[in-house]
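Lab notes, practical 5.
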Amino acid sequence: MNISVDALNLNFLSLSLYANNVRQQLISSQYDSSTYRFTIKPVMFLKPNITYRLEFNYTGLINDYRDGGLFYTRWRDNYFGYTNHYIVATFFAIGYGARSTFPCFDDPSFKANFSVTLISPTAFKALGNMPLESESEIE
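Output from the prediction step:
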């Protein structure tokens, strides 16, 4: 049995599959650019009542705001000097959607819990719409 996730404009650096926290061997993994799907073929067959976890290390693009997904845009501060500010934000309902931000099942019929690790320069302020789990500085 294969596992397929949606992915668009993502560069996969590494992939791991775990069953009950034990790393599993993979036969293959490949990306299909016509369907925008990344398919993983594990050595073992997936079984019910076992917790599986996929871990990906990847890079992606920041899109133009018209394309949605992870995008950049600017806003003008009209109160303090009419200066332009730039932000990076997400919008998954149009354009490239979630699949251009992280590997996922990009379909409204699926709902999932996920965690995000964000690395940003200390001069920037990272914002989200969920409670912050942890924050730390790296060197």
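Observations recorded by the TA: Residues 1-60+99-128 form one domain. The chain has a mean pLDDT of 87.
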